[in-house]
């Protein structure tokens, strides 16, 4: 079971419950099982678990697979995984990592920080087979991040495809540049709402502007419409906006008590863990515990400045990517804590959560840029490295 706030699956279900034919007539929904995994080949040397030196780390690292610039992953009820790659491929990967197939190829703008980004299952995936994902696209005015969904179904050729793909929401406005798309997705614990992050596209001031969605956390319906009751519409903000004053939001997750946590990259220093509250202003670019890259100062967060301060921050930067709140049984001592991948820091970081407070925990060197952190069905921790070839590995951390 995965319960990191991005999607909650109530029970592990067999693959036969996943799908219908992708070529069914409109309105048709006759059940047809997904194809079972092909027989696994003999284990390769890279799949062998190698225990760390005594006392070095509290887990065993197992290299499971290798990808080309992977960005995100999520587990299916049967233990298989969906993995996104930057250039637009979405892959269905066996639980042991030894077989894979392409279920969709999305047209993306992959320049810079763009590409195919997050992927999560709908809360009712067992019935709807819907998969939500985000990507960068070019359009009128420049580029922006898009929220989309499709249905995972068996196809007539005996494989599995993501069909019925539809774009649900596009960031406003599209602007020039190739950075700070964000594009992380989290469903509320009750499954009624979808939270979607829009970065400020390295343009600073859009994070404070009422006229667009850039630099914001958005609360949408599962169909991509503004959720009713969003707190800032009456003040002239776009109707989707839940919170604002954000920079580059690369992780969102709900804890077991329903609190929404978010991590974002600061400028030169000032990377943040935030507790996201409705209607709050998180300060960017007017307040940050970091500085501009050219050395110019930014006022630090301080009491009474009108901005919501981070619960945890880092200086120098760790370049956070991915956010998971642990709920498994394999590492009971970490249950309820947040895990963050580090890009420039090449690390996995643990943040201790206690109610609405947070504090820094462990930081383990991973010797590679960590793009994604997920919890597996058995409570293992899974990492995706940020790179291509031998630098884009999928790694499983298990109890030694």
Automatic annotation (TrEMBL):
PROSITE patterns: PROKAR_LIPOPROTEIN. Keywords: Signal. InterPro entries: 6-blade_b-propeller_TolB-like, Glc/Sorbosone_DH, Quinoprot_gluc/sorb_DH_b-prop. Residues 1-24 form the signal peptide. Residues 67-396 form the Glucose/Sorbosone dehydrogenase domain. This is Glucose/arabinose dehydrogenase. The lineage of its organism: Bacteria, Pseudomonadati, Pseudomonadota, Alphaproteobacteria, Sphingomonadales.
């Amino acid at each position: 079971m995965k319960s990191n706030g991005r999607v909650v699956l109530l029970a592990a279900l067999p693959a036969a419950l996943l799908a219908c034919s992708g070529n069914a007539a409109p309105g048709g929904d006759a059940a047809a099982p997904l194809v079972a995994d092909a027989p696994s080949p003999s284990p390769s040397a890279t799949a062998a678990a190698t225990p760390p030196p005594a006392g070095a780390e509290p887990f065993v690292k197992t290299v499971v697979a290798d990808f080309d610039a992977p960005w995100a992953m999520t587990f299916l009820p049967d233990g298989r995984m969906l993995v996104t790659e930057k250039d637009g491929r979405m892959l269905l990967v066996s639980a042991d990592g030894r077989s894979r197939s392409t279920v969709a190829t999305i047209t993306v703008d992959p320049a810079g920080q763009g590409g195919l980004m997050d992927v999560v299952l709908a809360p009712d995936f067992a019935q709807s087979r819907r998969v939500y994902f985000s990507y960068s696209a070019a359009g009128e005015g420049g580029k922006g991040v898009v929220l989309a969904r499709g249905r995972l179904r068996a196809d007539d050729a005996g494989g599995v495809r993501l069909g019925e793909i539809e774009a649900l929401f596009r960031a406003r406005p599209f602007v020039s540049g190739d950075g700070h798309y964000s594009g992380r997705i989290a469903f509320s614990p009750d499954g009624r709402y979808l939270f979607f992050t829009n970065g400020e596209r390295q343009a600073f001031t859009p994070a404070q502007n009422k006229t667009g969605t850039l630099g914001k956390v958005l609360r949408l319906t599962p169909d991509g419409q503004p959720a009713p009751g969003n707190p800032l519409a009456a003040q002239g903000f776009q109707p989707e906006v839940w919170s604002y004053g954000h920079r580059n939001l690369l992780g969102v997750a709900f804890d077991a008590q329903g609190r929404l946590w978010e991590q974002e990259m600061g400028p030169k220093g000032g990377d943040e863990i935030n507790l996201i509250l409705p209607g709050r202003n998180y300060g960017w670019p007017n307040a940050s515990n970091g500085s501009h890259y050219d050395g110019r100062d930014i006022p630090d967060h301080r009491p009474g400045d009108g901005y919501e301060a981070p619960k945890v921050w880092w200086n120098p930067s760790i370049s956070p990517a991915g956010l998971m709140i642990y709920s498994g049984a394999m590492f009971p001592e970490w249950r309820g804590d947040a895990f963050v991948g580090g890009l420039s820091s090449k690390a996995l970081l643990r943040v201790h959560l206690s109610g609405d407070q947070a504090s820094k925990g462990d930081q383990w060197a991973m010797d590679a840029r960590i793009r994604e952190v997920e919890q597996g069905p058995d409570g293992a921790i899974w990492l995706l490295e940020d790179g291509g070839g031998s630098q884009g590995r999928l790694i499983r951390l298990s109890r030694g």
